[in-house]
Amino acid sequence: MRNLGKTYPEVWKFYDEARQNRGKNGASSWPDWCYCPLSVSADIIQQFVETGQVEIEKVLDIGILGALATWRTGQGIYRFDPDLFASIVDTPIDKLPVEVLYHLPEWCVYIETPGLQWFKNKLAGVFVHLEWDVKTEQPELRLVLDLDEEEPRNLALQKFGPAAQSFNLVALPLHMTEPTLDLAIAAMLEEAIKQGGGGQGQSVPNLSQELAQSLEPVINLVLYLCTANADFGIADRPTYPRPKKTKKGWRLFPPDRPQNWDVGVRLGAALRAAKTASQAPEQSTSNQLAESEASRLSPHLRRAHWHTYRVGEGRTVSILKWLPPTPINIDYLDELPAAIHPVNLA
Prior knowledge:
Elements: H1 2-7, H2 11-20, H3 38-51, H4 62-71, E1 76-80, H5 82-89, E2 108-112, E3 117-118, E4 121-133, E5 138-147, H6 150-160, E6 169-175, H7 181-196, H8 204-226, E7 244-246, E8 249-251, E9 259-263, H9 265-279, H10 287-294, E10 300-302, E11 305-311, E12 317-323, E13 326-328
Parallel strand pairs: 1-2, 1-9
Antiparallel strand pairs: 2-4, 3-4, 4-5, 5-6, 7-8, 10-13, 11-12
Helix pairs in contact: 3-4, 5-9, 7-8
């Protein structure tokens, strides 16, 4: 963010003005779940290109600027419990439940992704936010992959200065109008080919399938943060920032430092307990108790999965929900880390 501030002076002021003018005097409007459309990023960059202050080769990608500007409002860093992380990234995705994605805990989150790769590149993390395309009036899920390649990044910074912040950051859009992950990526590729004026001889389905496989673990992590019962480890949950009234109108003031969120502290402990119990189930000395235990499922983990519910009149409407890994027949959850919920009795 410091590099962006140097490359584009008063960039954050531009975003404040865009939000204050939202929907006024013919200006574009957008849903509340979007901080600012990427059209604002494009307008900011275009201003600097026209004045000659920044060479076009060094202009940061529009998607990267938009993601970092959005993340700046909350600066949430999400670190998953290792056992929960392993269970979530291994969950197969058959359909992309678009309605769940509107429940991101912040406008933009940064998820750490230890051990994950993207096309053989180590992935340090990913910025995730929702975009509103003002031209098509369609929503998108925007990902900015943070590739963990410190040496090339440092060399780029030495050679190009602040403008090299975009090195090792890869912006990807997913169209939320598609029902499945692979189709969403295919739509993204087809649009990119269309805009580029190419596409001869390119196999979009094969490439989209490969992309889907590489992004599926990341999408699973995003979906977990969108669930209503996500385990953030403390009583307070992340939330959208609230604007404050100033002499020049309502403004958002970013936090002084990033906020770390430990995700899955209690659930991760439950998963470890379930693994231990499933490997060494308790032995009963009583015949009656042994018979009772025999009819009871052994302690185990039900794999995280998507589940379809039929709701509405006649149960004709199907909705999808994501169910996290569930401990089955685990009786000692009282030993897990406690969650404190302050109650205001005033």
